[in-house]
Amino acid sequence: MVTVINSDYCKGCNLCVVTCPVKVYKEGDKPSSRGYFVPKIVNVEKCMDYKRKKGEKKKCELCVLVCPDQAISWSNE
Description:
Blueprint: E1 2-5, H1 15-19, E2 25-26, E3 40-41, H2 62-66, E4 72-75
């Protein structure tokens, strides 16, 4: 499973960038259709939950928990 940022929900607060202990996210440089700078996922392979199989216990997920807009989720590749 990999992390995904939904640009329709994200308002570019960058809490995920600041909170991630392994620096999976980086501040965005292009505005979304709503005008917010959505963070980029740059080091997904460093994520503790990267390649986690469905049903396995999550190890970190701080980005999902800290996002005030529920814009971060997990998806099958």
